[in-house]
Amino acid sequence: MSSPVKDEQSDAMLEALIAKEILPQSGNWEGTEEFLNRVVQVLLKYIKDQNDRDQKILEFHHPDKMQMLIDLSIPEQPENLLKLVKSCEDVLRLGVRTGHPRFFNQISCGLDLVSMAGEWLTATANTNMFTYEIAPVFILMEKSVMTRMWEAVGWDPEKADGIFAPGGAIANLYAMNAARHQLWPRSKHLGMKDIPTLCCFTSEDESHYSIKSASAVLGIGADHCFNIPTDKNGKMIPEALEAKIIESKKEGLTPFFVCCTAGTTVYGAFDPLERVANICERHKLWFHVDAAWGGGMLLSPEHRYKLAGVERANSVTWNPHKLMGALLQCSACLFRQDGLLFQCNQASADYLFQQDKPYDVSYDTGDKAIQCGRHNDVFKLWLMWKSKGMEGYRQQINKLMDLSAYFTRRIKETEGFELIIENPEFLNICFWYVPSKIRNLEPAEIKARLEKIAPKIKAGMMQRGTTMVGYQPDKQRPNFFRMIISNQAITREDLDFLIKEIVDIGESLE
Amino acid sequence: MSSPVKDEQSDAMLEALIAKEILPQSGNWEGTEEFLNRVVQVLLKYIKDQNDRDQKILEFHHPDKMQMLIDLSIPEQPENLLKLVKSCEDVLRLGVRTGHPRFFNQISCGLDLVSMAGEWLTATANTNMFTYEIAPVFILMEKSVMTRMWEAVGWDPEKADGIFAPGGAIANLYAMNAARHQLWPRSKHLGMKDIPTLCCFTSEDESHYSIKSASAVLGIGADHCFNIPTDKNGKMIPEALEAKIIESKKEGLTPFFVCCTAGTTVYGAFDPLERVANICERHKLWFHVDAAWGGGMLLSPEHRYKLAGVERANSVTWNPHKLMGALLQCSACLFRQDGLLFQCNQASADYLFQQDKPYDVSYDTGDKAIQCGRHNDVFKLWLMWKSKGMEGYRQQINKLMDLSAYFTRRIKETEGFELIIENPEFLNICFWYVPSKIRNLEPAEIKARLEKIAPKIKAGMMQRGTTMVGYQPDKQRPNFFRMIISNQAITREDLDFLIKEIVDIGESLE
């Protein structure tokens, strides 16, 4: 660490400078380096603190209060570099430490530092993924990384295709759009009025809402996205799917797309891919697997059987920013068949994708994308994957699955906890905590009370700042917690801590 | 800089470590810090070199060769941290320095170091923009930054709305989707079959291809996006627009959306917003302004008149990653009227957007987005904007406009150069270079030869690695250069250099 004298000098230097007095507008390298080094110091301290379990996850403030704690306004005159460094400190101090080992709130948790270093480099290289011309290494890297992903899915990399999209919802939209294009290429030019009334299928509640949303955006209509009932473990019931397909045809609709989910958002359920693939073959439907969350399981030879049949999919969404722990955003939409993405999205913008360039323009990816500018999401994944190797991921995922089993056992044996799904098959564990005060009430009364228990416990956690875990209701059930074990930093002690904290807050409720 | 002895020690330390032996999986802070500091050293050296005009912009290699220069494969076993640092060096060495002051190739050029520092922090904070719960400061920051943008457009911030989207193409898609929803809300549920056959309008060639692409994706059909002729400066001809609107109605179509471009991609033209706004009012059409590139001009009181009438738009796309110089991606889609974005995209995912949280959930933005996970694109913009203030942007944009005028003058007075548009009104300057050897040929012959001149000069630049500028043909014209002056680092000398380099390479062609 720097000595106090040096810090004072540094403060004085940065206080005397504004942005246009450092690179790239001025040649002042010393000031440039000092500014960036100071920001890095702030970031390193944040990382260190975040990994200290005695530090809080957040200081909770309501929006009104928050606005008094930090000046978010855009000033008339430039602020000096020291003030910017202080702003960085403030923003981090008032934020939520999503990489804290006891933050279990989202599917994307944790902070892999190699991936983070990769994102720092990505920012510094600041290029756009549309052509080999301006992103030669990153374009080739996408292909190399996707090759590993295609292999993991079980496809022939020579024939497969794919693109990194800004998040799983857009990836699913890419897939549905390509499916429509393959079946009805003229819709690209003439729109939906010119083709039959399409409909698609995904599991009830359990599937991600982005399938319905893609249906709405694409002009198919959210109501033409049918929800197929699920079994008690949250898995799509294939018989119900086939019945609905047949029924929709009778009603004059044209089924075209089935989405199975591999790792549902709430329950972590895996739909029965083989059986759905059979149905899709029988009815000649596009088979999409939304493995945004569960895709990482393909890297574990021990657990990948849960996705058996995924190789029969026409398209797969797989978000490395979820189970693989890459930084947000990192989401791939993969296609078994090459060429379609280009045909579907190609817009022939001469000013971008000239054919008379001094290299093989088949490497240019711009015309495959719905986006024009496309962020480089691959480098942070590539660097992280190199840092672990295939073997490292295998271990990491197996370890998380072991922790999930451990947590489930602990929930089962701890008084007051009740699992929603008796034997979770993934890293989502859904449960209620029933405080002792209400345990002896009538079941209907308990259910009514439970609706308010999880929100109150959650509010307590946020006030204490010690841990965070999400909750939600479903159609039949009052609010329950959804625990997610995806941060590689998690230990058994962290899980024990969460259980203790829930009991502690839950028992203290009025 | 570190001494050689220290470097050797550092190398040895990092060579002995793999990722799981540092944070967050292990408590080894010394190794963690050393790794991150070494990566930062690599990045700082890159930044310093990039700003040194004697350094090359790129080492050009064809894809086959490139693949031999760097090992892009994903290994079975983890690679040690030293190897990762070396990989970072390799990737940067083999890439294109898009922040080099003589890289004029794209609309997004340059590397603002405050914005970059902001992106480093964003990566470190690694959160998701869907709720106040997990991104409290950043959610409020979006509102604060958008308030400045709404004001710049000329809207009442109390009534306006908006969202940061992954790039301008998706922002335009947001706008068109919202426009459809406002006019035909039932299309969200029932799709396009249930409503009239829609059509939309944008300028011929000059407009961004994403409007046609959005039309295709939304199920309206690319052929129902009509291209309106432009004048010799690349501006949409309002009379032609109105004629086409009337014609399309006669043909049984339902016009609903007009996109004006403020700063076209190739010529930098500004469509006549006031006149188009009148037509939209008359015909009750949604008026969208794609100011992805030109939006930054709103920050210059001297130049904002080019967008006069923008305040009458229903929606505006404005990409701070273009003229404002924020890092990719940073793109906003702004709406004059609050509420619509939510109605249009809301999917009511209970597991994300619970209403019984311990704070005012109206701050949660998730249900306004088509995406689910949404990258934090605002912090890098906010920090950069603070570093310049309103006054700094005013100066920066005025300076770029002055440089554009200077470059235009120099092109006019230098033998062999011919402007495509005599008086460019923005930061795009389009021109041919006619080598002396062919200057005396017949006009038709010159035109035929010119098609190959720009690609050859460009190839020469890439081989030399000294500068880069884009080229393309248009319907009537053979390949011409499109110069972009958007990097704040550009000086007059850089522009003189480009002219000299083009002459030098152009004259040496066979």
Automatic annotation (TrEMBL), chains A, B:
The keyword Nucleotide-binding does not apply. It comes from the Eukaryota. One of its GO terms (cellular component) is cytoplasm. GO terms for molecular function: glutamate decarboxylase activity; pyridoxal phosphate binding. Keywords: Decarboxylase, Lyase, Pyridoxal phosphate. Its cofactor is pyridoxal 5'-phosphate. SUPFAM superfamilies: PLP-dependent transferases (SSF53383). GO terms for biological process: gamma-aminobutyric acid biosynthetic process; synaptic transmission, GABAergic. The modification N6-(pyridoxal phosphate)lysine is found at residue 322. It holds the Pfam family Pyridoxal_deC. The keyword Plastid does not apply. Belongs to the group II decarboxylase family. Homodimer. This is Protein CBR-UNC-25. It comes from Caenorhabditis briggsae.
